[in-house]
Design goal:
Elements lengths: L2 H17 L5 H8 L4 H13 L3 E2 L9 E2 L3
Antiparallel strand pairs: 1-2
Helix pairs in contact: 1-3, 2-3
């Protein structure tokens, strides 16, 4: 896992803990200081493929850490 991926994972865990739902791609991009939302999408997709994050199909803001 890259340092950026770890920061995104940590943000998702903290956001879920604080709010009870997952962050949007815009919120992830803003938190990370990315210029484009697609950067957040790419990292979260890679983390989902690695089994670190999961997203419940058909639900909005369902991005969460698998081991959380």
């Amino acid at each position: 896992m890259t340092p950026k991926q770890k920061k995104v994972e940590d943000f998702v865990i903290q956001f879920w803990s604080d709010n009870g739902y997952g962050p949007s791609q815009n919120e992830i991009a803003e938190h990370m200081g990315f210029k484009y939302r697609s950067q957040a999408y790419t990292i979260t997709t890679n983390l989902i493929n690695q089994g670190v994050l999961e997203k419940i199909p058909g639900r909005i803001r369902s991005l969460r850490a698998v081991n959380e």
